[in-house]
User: Which sequence fits this backbone?
């Protein structure tokens, strides 16, 4: 079991972090966000363990996770790829989408502040 290979891009105030699981059983560290967000499962299949139980999804699938819900993904198929997608926030996670004019450094600082990684 290992962590996913990740790639992160920030474009026009949109955060996209791609996770690639090579092997069945690969897992990413669980976390929660202060805002609702979407995960695009583009290939493979995952088990999502979350505060309200667990679900299994097969690609292609869009997974919506409400704010504050801790969630963790585990690959059920090799070469599973999913992307966490959300606006960059600068407040409490409601009406607080950050300006698209922020620098990449400011964006990463906000992501660290407002992503509730555990």
Assistant:
């Amino acid at each position: 079991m290992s962590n996913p290979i990740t790639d992160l891009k920030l474009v026009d105030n949109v955060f996209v972090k791609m996770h690639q699981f090579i092997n069945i059983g690969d897992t990413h560290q669980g976390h929660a966000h202060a805002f609702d967000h979407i995960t695009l499962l583009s290939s493979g299949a995952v088990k999502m363990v979350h505060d309200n139980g667990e679900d299994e999804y097969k690609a292609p699938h869009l997974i919506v996770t409400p704010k504050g819900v801790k969630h963790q993904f585990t690959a059920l198929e090799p070469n599973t790829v999913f992307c966490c997608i959300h606006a960059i926030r600068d407040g409490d996670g409601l009406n607080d989408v950050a300006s698209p004019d922020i620098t990449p450094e400011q964006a990463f600082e906000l992501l660290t502040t407002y992503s509730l990684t555990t």
The chain has a mean pLDDT of 84. The domain at 5-117 is CATH 2.60.120.10 (Jelly Rolls). The two ends are 19 Å apart (CA to CA).
